[in-house]
Amino acid sequence: MITAVLPTYNRAKISFERGEGMRVFTAEGEAYLDFGGGVAVTSCGHAHPHLVKALTEQAKKIWHTSNIYQMPGQEKLAQRLIEATFADTVFFTNSGAEALECSIKMARKYHAAKGQPERFRLITFEGAFHGRTLATIAAGGQAKYLEGFGPKVEGFDQIAFGDFEALKAAIGPETAGILIEPIQGEGGVRPVPTESLRAMRAMCDEHGILLILDEVQCGVGRTGKFFAHEWAGITPDIMAVAKGIGGGFPLGACLATENAAQGMTAGTHGSTYGGNPLATAVGNAVLDVVLEKGFLDNVQRRALGLKQKLARLKDEHPTIIEDIRGSGLMMGIKCKVPNTEFQATAMEHKLLTIAAGDNVIRLLPPLIVNDDDITEAVHKLEMTCRSLEAKPK
Description:
Blueprint: E1 18-20, E2 23-25, E3 31-34, H1 37-40, H2 49-59, H3 72-84, E4 89-93, H4 96-113, E5 121-125, H5 134-140, H6 143-146, E6 156-159, H7 164-170, E7 175-180, E8 183-184, E9 190-191, H8 194-207, E10 210-214, E11 238-241, E12 252-256, H9 277-290, H10 295-316, E13 321-327, E14 330-335, H11 339-348, E15 351-352, E16 354-356, E17 360-363, H12 371-390
Parallel strand pairs: 3-15, 5-6, 5-7, 7-10, 10-11
Antiparallel strand pairs: 1-2, 2-3, 4-12, 8-9, 11-12, 13-14, 14-17, 16-17
């Protein structure tokens, strides 16, 4: 008999009643240190007072009007994102997948508006994850997500991750742009080298195509910069954002230059809920926290401490940990045991982590994490390694 909730998730047999800061609590009061952050979503931690205040104050005013009408909170958030990034304009969505859909449509429309509708194909990369709509699973190209959903949506040419010669060869007369995550999340916390991002930017300029970045997981302070591409000193034409920007409230955005957005005129795209008053009230509160002077510097300092402690952990447990990878507070532990087993064992030690591809465990703590939290998390990871080492082979 089918469950009341469509059984598309393999859920852990645990639920949480409340959260506070870096921790979540079961109904029985058991505390878990959250180093998964709801898959990089709870950027400001759980029940952050400033976010709670913003949401409750807005809830007393107006929840929803739709994009038929002007919304001051939405316009404020868009302007703040523009001032803090490369972008000239913003389209708000409810999720990362929708932000990617807008990005894909915008790239195609850009060329069509210039009289080149045949330029609709995007180059994507093995191991990518861009969402679960029909277009975004085609962009990601992973067989496990494509199986059983009919013909793959046309327009995506996938190449091997890190194969620059294949990238150059893939650009043709139908190419609209390159779509890439600066750090692959679901694919196993694989950063794209800064020199590769710079080369892609130059390649796009040379061929008159668009550079589209998926910063749904690695953006909004996750790497210690507001957005991960800033480390490479380049800017995209279009960028998809979500997760951390809402701090737990469903919110996404497609950011773009005026040039890239030139085809997106009235009626070409829309969303009923996207950027509604509740969502943008929380989004503005998140920016209050993340863009506060010194906040991102603190993320960088905490991230360095975490990376150093994880390196020691790898050296001390070579039969469990193969590699440490990632950037900022988006770190990956490549395991020598099944990552699902590592994740389950960490949970036994009251530490929440997130599994990823390439047998990796992701550490995606809220950006408010402090040194004591990191010390505690690494201690729990140490106990996890010891528990796994003690299991009979």
